[in-house]
Amino acid sequence: MKKFYLMTTAGLLAMAATPATAQVSLPTEPDPLVTVDVDLSTGALLGDQSVLDAVVEVGGGELLDVYLGLLEGSSGGTNFQLLDGTILTALETLGGPELVSAFESLVGTTARTADYVTNQANSASQVSTLAATANSVANVSATAASIGNSYALDAAANVVADLGQVNEGTGTSTVATVYSAVSDVTETAASIGNSGSFNADGALLDVAVDQNNLGNQTAALLTVQNMVAEATSTAASIGNSLSVEMPGGSKITATQNNAGTMIADLTGTIASTVDYTATAAAIGNSYALTSLDSGIAGNVSSSLNQWNGAGQIAKVTANIAASTNAAATAAAIGNSVSINVE
Q1: First and final CA of the chain: distance in angstroms?
Q2: d(CA 224, CA 236)
Q3: CA–CA separation, 290 vs 339, rounded Å?
Q4: Most buried in the list 44, 190, 253, 340, measured by CB within 10 Å?
Q5: Which residues contact 179 (CB under 8 A, 6 or more apart)?
């Protein structure tokens, strides 16, 4: 076995520009940008065009930058997408299992030392059903939630975390309610393929997240209300949900891929209600980032890729009578990004 060295373009140009008659002192072993313990012919294949095409197919230009940076010796941390089957197949076609093994080792050598590494995989179905009747009650809160994978990290100290979530199961949440003479009502039917939450106030986070949802998610809410002061009804289906709140100086790299159909269906019959809000939301990928203390510490570094290949269906049917204020919203969204800088 030989060690294969990838040299910089500048270095090669400098060598080419040197006159043939001049005496040039070269180091016996040049400083490598990356060292691969494979044969010379095998290591050279890492830069083959078919491999570069496979990288672009999986993650576009941003992932190609990560890959090229990896070959140049950068240590930005493991990126789950670089081990995608499309890329590994291209490598195996060129150099067989030996090249695949060398590449996997190369990815591993640049991995960050993570405090928390978590991989979640769900292939089963989740079903939640809620039926409630309330009469002459002050406050009512009703929730039915079906979630394939859920992860939450609340940090009080600096943390490096890697999270991978794969959901193949279907989620179904159903809420059916009847209310009369109730002061305050909050009811929710929610189905989510993958849910991730990262929160830090005074601590720095370095986070890598890869969410993949393949399962269909359905949320249905049916409510009948009479003489209710304030009521909020929500039916939400989300393939991948990622919520991040952390101070400036933190870093997050995330990918979200949804291939499941999202359905949110809300039906309400409302009478003699003061304030009523109804929302049905079907979202393929949802990402919300809040950058804290940005005026002092700078902004959070955020890199996000979202892919949605499935349909979203949101439906609201509302029959409202003798009520003061009412608002109904049906929203179907493929990819959603919200960034708040404070």
Answers
A1: 54
A2: 19
A3: 6
A4: 190
A5: 133, 134, 135, 137, 140, 185, 223, 224, 225, 226, 228, 231
Tell the residue number behind the tokens 């809160």, with chain if given.
141
Q: How many residues are there in the chain? A: 342
Spatial CA neighbour of 149 closest among 215, 59, 219 = 215
How many Å is the Cα radius of gyration of the chain? 26
**pTM value?**
0.70
Residues facing residue 308 across a β-bridge: 258
CA-based torsion, 164, 242, 254, 61: positive or negative: positive
Asked if 148 and 213 touch (Cβ cutoff 8 Å), the reply is: yes
Q: Which amino acid is at 323?
A: S
- pLDDT, tens digit, for every residue of 128-179? 999 999 999 999 999 999 999 999 999 988 888 999 999 999 999 999 999 9
Query: Mean pLDDT per 10-residue run, the chain (342 residues)?
Result: 42 40 39 36 67 84 76 54 80 83 64 77 96 96 97 91 95 97 96 96 89 97 96 97 92 94 97 95 97 80 93 96 93 96 88
How far apart are alpha carbons 342 and 340 in whole angstroms? Answer: 6
Query: Six-digit token pair at 112?
Result: 């960050």
Residue with tokens 């009512």: 140
